Amino acid sequence: MGLGSPAETPAVISYAPTETPVAFSLPDGFLDSVGDGPKAAIAVAERDALQARSSGVTFSWSYKDLSGRVIPGPVYMVNARACRDMVHEAQQNGETKRARATLCLSENGTWERVG
Questions:
Q1: How far apart are CA 18 and CA 1, in angstroms?
Q2: How far apart are CA 45 and CA 66, in angstroms?
Q3: For residue 113, what are the β-bridge partners?
Q4: What pLDDT does 4 receive?
Q5: Element (H, E) at 45
Q6: In angstroms, rounded to a whole number, what is the distance separating the alpha carbons of residues 4 and 34?
Q7: Which of 9, 17, 53, 54 is in the most buried spot, having the most CB atoms within 10 Å?
């Protein structure tokens, strides 16, 4: 499957609201080590980043001694699906964990990790 060229961001990107983080790019086990409070904050930042019209904007989250940020890349089309690359950084116990992922919008309006 080849990547399409960058496209102008759609006027509206629909998504299925959720209180569960997509956790598209957090290191394995990160969400297992935190409670529900941080998960809700992460979910809001991820959702806002996925529906953002601009790329490179930072969506921060924090909960007590945990914090992080989600940075969306530009929206581009792959086989008629809106996709975007995302970066997620999380700080825990003085250590920063950083990961990347590619997500595409599914037919039912949810974002799926594809890479």
A1: 29
A2: 14
A3: 103
A4: 42
A5: helix 36-50
A6: 37
A7: 9
The rounded average pLDDT for each run of 10 residues, N- to C-terminus, in the chain (115 residues) is 40 43 58 72 85 88 87 92 88 82 85 80
Residue 103 CA to residue 105 CA, distance in Å, equals: 7
Reduce the DSSP state of residue 94 to 3 states and report it.
coil
- Give the pLDDT score at 73: 92
CA-closest candidate to residue 8, choices 112, 59, 82, 110: 82
Give the Cα separation of 102 and 111 in Å (integer).
10
Number of C-beta neighbours around residue 2 at 10 A? 5
* Distance in angstroms (rounded) separating the CA atoms of residues 74 and 15: 17
Q: Which two tokens stand for residue 65?
A: 């001694």
* Torsion over CA: 104, 114, 102, 97 (sign): positive
Task: Give this prediction's pTM.
Answer: 0.71
The answer for residues whose C-beta is within 8 angstroms of residue 28's C-beta and 6 or more apart is none
- The predicted pLDDT at position 60 comes to 92
